[in-house]
Amino acid sequence: MNKAQGSTAYHWFLLFILAALAPNKLWGIDASNTEPWNKRIPHSIDDLLGIQKQLHEQLSEVRETVVSVEAIEGAGSGVIVSPEGLILTAAHVIEERGREMTVVFPDGNKVKAISLGGSELSDAGMLKITEGGPWPHATMALANKSVVGDWCFALGHPSGFDNERGMVLRLGRLIRKKDETIQTDCRLLGGDSGGPLFSLSGEVIGIHSRISQNSDENFHTPIESFLSNWNYFLEEDILTYGSLQGGGFLGVSCEEASKGLEVLELIPGTPAESSGIRPGDFLLRLNDTPLDTREKLTILISRQPPGSMVIIDYLHKGREISVRLTLGERPAKE
Amino acid sequence: MNFLKWSCFLVFFSFKGLLATSPDFDVLDTSHRINGSLMNEATGKKRAEVLDLLWGLYRNDKLISHGIMVNPKGYLLSKASSSMGARYAMSYSGKYLPIRIRKRDEKTDLALWQITDSSKLWPFAEWHNDLNKTKIGNWAISGNKDLSGLTFGVISAKSRSIGREGGVMGVILEESNSSTKGIKVLEVLPHAAGDRGGLKVMDRIIRVDGRTVRTTEQIYEIVKKKDPGDLLTLSIQRRKKESLLRITLGHREVAFDMFNRNLLMSGPVSKRKDNFPMILQHDLPLFKEMMGGGIFDLNGYCIGINIARIDRVTSYALPTPVVLPVLNQWIKELP
Which domain-ending residue is among A199, A214, A239? Predict the structure, then answer.
């Protein structure tokens, strides 16, 4: 007992030393060997020029992967992520599965494509080129790689494709990231929807979704939404708010956290309330499928009819618990 | 090994500690954003050097445009159609001095002003004249609205010429080439130029700018030659009475896309935004009162003059190779 306490005290001392020595982002001082775009804030003209150089390099790498997506009613943007011509875009650009669309390359060349799935919750959408290939494609960032403060650049075709103007670049920083949304100060306009948000290492970290009244706080779908629900988007369907009705219902509101989905609230009279799950717990898995996004939980639950049996693994005060429960019915919208 | 394990924990712990002191840690502080205050500090001495060249132009004590000092004798370059009627110019350092107009060019929409009672020599712009080096992705900086700091953005699309758009009335006319008297107005778009000028459905247009019109085509021919902002005089017949209407022509996209969401989300845009021989497109957040000011590269060289705010993602600047021939000619002609 004594020994343990002594050891803790020793480590508290260590904390002090480390804190004083840590010349990292947390303390506002950047190490001099940090790349300019990874510093908390650029400190000099040289840092700004470093960001510019990196932007030039990545821009020339990725610009061929950005396309305009034309539907019957209007146009959005998209980014190719596989040599077979799989394109990430916004759900509100494709609207439904199986729709014929036209994809326009930066040089004005047009090819046919068909819309796949997605989700209205995050505004993620997919489509696929149905002719030719292989296509130039961009790399997607790994889940949780992008963080608040990252420099990023947006590409797209605001107000539609314009051959003389070409695609339009915007530079900014990631200002917020939460659940199904990324916000940046990259300026967006209609027509940008579905276009890619790139990190300065040239990886897709988001897809343009909605513009904000405040022009420097626009919304993007995080790449995590695509990664988490890949097979559903690719092979199954587009999740709409309307299609949630009639599916199963759990009755838990939660928020994405590093440990899992943190439970905020349980709706009275729902299966969740009587399951033993409590606010502050973390949902980990549903029927053995890891719950890495909130959206994934919604998709898994709503695809099963009310009355289905599911098994949820969750963390309660650090202890993992497994519970079997029967899904209820989603309350009708008022 | 043990040490490593603990240091990981400790870094995590200190992170948590920071979280407690800043409740909104999830959101990037405005000072850190691309147009936040800390970006200004990164430019060091260049900040004051650039701001020293920029002036605000005022009419009735209201800021109407920006301008840039182009000559030590107090010559300020600005956007003509924005700066018309300016009486005073205010510098970044707060000097408020009377100005008068010396030159104006229709083609580029540039105007040259001069500080009238100036005995001192002013710091003036140096130019970067190589359009090939102004690449997409280059930083572009300018002053903010009240010249208290810099704004930041990038060159965002290809340099190109912008064609002439022509003005519109915002009405739909009967297709007629017959000899019945006048051309019937079938539809008047709400809030567009014709509507604001008092034109009504079923009016018959008899004369345009004094010329009698017999076909719809004749009206189009006259209107097409005019720009948004130009005046059009119509003689119309309404319930057998003839009267005169004066209509200020509008933009095609504004007239026909009144409810276009992109425009509604963009706020006030420039009156003249077409018909430029060459432009640089950038994403700096500019208000329409900031036209006429310069944009600069990071070395403080002027790469162009802001000439039109198009929408919330697009501003145009006239590049130096377009500005300099006009400016040099003017300077040669003046004492």
Answer: A239
Do A108 and A13 share a structural domain?
no
DSSP-assigned beta bridge partners for residue B250: B168
Q: Chain A closest CA to B297's CA: distance in Å?
A: 10
Q: Which residues of B touch A192 (CB under 8 A)?
A: 313
| Number of domains comprising chain A | 3
- State yes or no: cis peptide before A134, omega within 30 of 0: yes
Report the DSSP beta bridge partners of residue A315. A282, A320
Q: A210 with A65, same domain? A: yes
Which chain B residues are within 8 Å of A47, Cβ to Cβ? 42
For residue B262, the chain A residues in CB contact (below 8 A) are: 158-159, 189-191
Whether residue A126 is contained in a domain is answered as yes
Q: How far is CA A121 from CA A115, A209, A246, A281, B123, in A?
A: 17, 11, 17, 23, 55
Domains and CATH numbers, chain B: 46-163+269-333 (2.40.10.120), 171-250 (2.30.42.10)
CB contact under 8 A, B44 and A45: yes
A152-186: pLDDT as tens digits: 999 999 988 999 999 999 999 999 999 999 999 99
Write down the ipTM of this complex. Answer: 0.84
Q: Is residue A322 part of a domain?
A: yes
Q: Is the dihedral of CA B278, B280, B285, B290 positive or negative?
A: negative
Q: Which domain holds residue A221?
A: 44-239
Question: Could you give the CA distance from residue A171 to residue B268 in angstroms, rounded to a whole number?
Answer: 23
Judged by a CB distance cut-off of 8 A, whether residue A42 touches chain B is yes
Q: Which of A106-115, A270-279, B255-264 has the highest mean pLDDT?
A: A106-115
Residue B108: pLDDT over 80: yes
In this structure, are residues B265 and A211 in contact, taking their beta carbons and an 8 Å threshold? Answer: yes
Phi-psi region of A132 (alpha: psi -120 to 50; beta: other; left: phi over 0): left
Boundary of a domain, candidates A201, A222, A239: A239
Same domain, A25 and A119: no
